[in-house]
Amino acid sequence: MNYKKLFAMQKELDHHIETKHQLQNENLFDRKVLALLVELGELANETRCFKFWSLKPLSARETILEEFVDGVHFILSLGLECAFEQESDFIGHTNGKQSLNEQFLFVFEKINQFRNSKEIKDFKELVHAYLHLGDLLGFTAEDIENAYIDKNEVNYERQQQGY
Ligand SMILES: O=c1ccn([C@H]2C[C@H](O)[C@@H](COP(=O)(O)OP(=O)(O)OP(=O)(O)O)O2)c(=O)[nH]1
């Protein structure tokens, strides 16, 4: 994963959005945390992994990947809020869970842990937990980077359309 490139793209997009909505002087940290929690819920919904009461199939892979990279946007954006973009060592991993259901719950925990500490250690644990979730969903680093780049572009277009 080319973190430097992704952080740079995210920085530009965030700057564009914050300027357009005149939010440069606002603290957006907690709103971004809530946005990430909501995106994670939307992602879980598309996978239907917890819906033991239903036989409907999960959404198309593309839809799930798009939801996944919405989360990547907000994770990077939170990293930028904490000035972690110079950090280059994201190698390593957090012990992941075996089932999707457990891993979703684990990522929710990691988001809250990072929200409370704002420490780089907890940010990295969140990144690793989120990537393990991507792994369980069958996404490679290349899938994620390409889908991130596509959605980043869509986000500019939406801002242009007065979204
Ligand atoms: O400061 C920001 C704010 C938003 N985004 C991105 C993240 C995500 O990729 C998108 C917001 O998610 P989505 O496209 O699902 O927006 P929505 O308003 O929830 O869409 P919809 O109303 O279609 O559900 O905007 C950023 O990157 N930085």
Automatic annotation (TrEMBL):
It holds the Pfam family dUTPase_2. Gene3D superfamilies: Type II deoxyuridine triphosphatase (1.10.4010.10). This is dUTPase. It comes from Cytobacillus depressus.
